[in-house]
Amino acid sequence: MNTLTIKENIKNYYNQEAELRNSKSIKQNWKILEREKFFNLIKQENKKSLLELGAGAGYDSLFFVNGGLTVTAVDISCEMVKNCREKGINAYELDYYNISSLDRKFECVFAMNTLLHIPKLDLNHVLNEISTIIEPEGLFYIGLYGGKDTEGEHINSEVSDIPRFFAFHSENYLKMILLKHFKIIKFETIKIDAHGSVDDFHSIVLRK
After folding, report:
1. SS3 sequence, the chain?
2. Which phi and psi (to 5°) does residue 20 adopt?
3. Is 0.70 topped by the overall pTM?
4. What is the rounded distance in angstroms from the CA atom of residue 93 to the CA atom of residue 84?
5. What is the radius of gyration, based on Cα positions, of the chain?
6. Cα separation of 136 and 106, whole Å?
7. Domains in the chain: boundaries
8. CA angle, 200 as apex, 164 and 13 as ends, to 5°?
9. What's the gap between Cα 128 and its chain centre?
10. For residue 46, how many other CB atoms are within 10 A of its CB?
11. What is the pLDDT along the chain (208 residues), one digit of tens a residue?
12. I need a labelling partner for 12 at 20 to 30 A (CA). Which of 19, 92, 101, 183 fits?
């Protein structure tokens, strides 16, 4: 499947799911902890600006705004962007392949379970785009389900029959790709109880 079709399916799926996600403001405890650890690092380094990639309904962006950061959010779904803007968040409809079109730089970037929609063949390009909008010595958090190097489409029929593309990565593969663009500050692979089964979750903090 080509990249344009993958992006169109992702956009249409999340447009359909936007209302449901907007109604669910409660996050899993482990996700809250991941977010807080990154926020504490941001505050320790006295950084002020943050870009959230794949902001969804905007609850993480709102958390960072309430913490005193200047936040910009992007999402491929126009309905998700609408939800963000209704919360007072500066949000744009944009995919990661053209993130440099924002034409500005940020001290921090936050991407929780969103880069997993990028095919492996496109990951280098997307990481390079992200690198162009991060200030020198800036921080980049990536959270990804992973464990094995696989990719393909999945359907959540409870929401939509539109397939979503997912790419999962091993620790070795991710480190090889990430080190082409960033310094790795922390790379932790943790076990979580996800969707009724035990999955790996990669918690990664990078520096430009």
Report:
1. CCHHHHHHHHHHHHHHHHHHHHCCCCCCHHHHHHHHHHHHHHHHCCCCEEEEECCCCCHHHHHHHHCCCEEEEEECCHHHHHHHHHCCCEEEECCHHHHHHHCCCEEEEEEECCHHHCCHHHHHHHHHHHHHCEEEEEEEEEEEEECCCEEEEECCCCCCCCCEEEEEECHHHHHHHHCCCCEEEEEEEEEEEECCEEEEEEEEEEEC
2. -65, -45
3. yes
4. 11
5. 16
6. 9
7. 3-207
8. 15
9. 15
10. 7
11. 799 999 999 999 999 999 988 887 777 888 999 999 999 999 999 999 999 999 999 999 999 999 999 999 999 999 999 999 999 999 999 999 999 999 999 999 999 999 999 999 999 999 999 999 999 999 999 999 887 889 999 898 888 899 999 999 999 999 999 999 999 999 998 887 655 444 789 999 999 9
12. 101
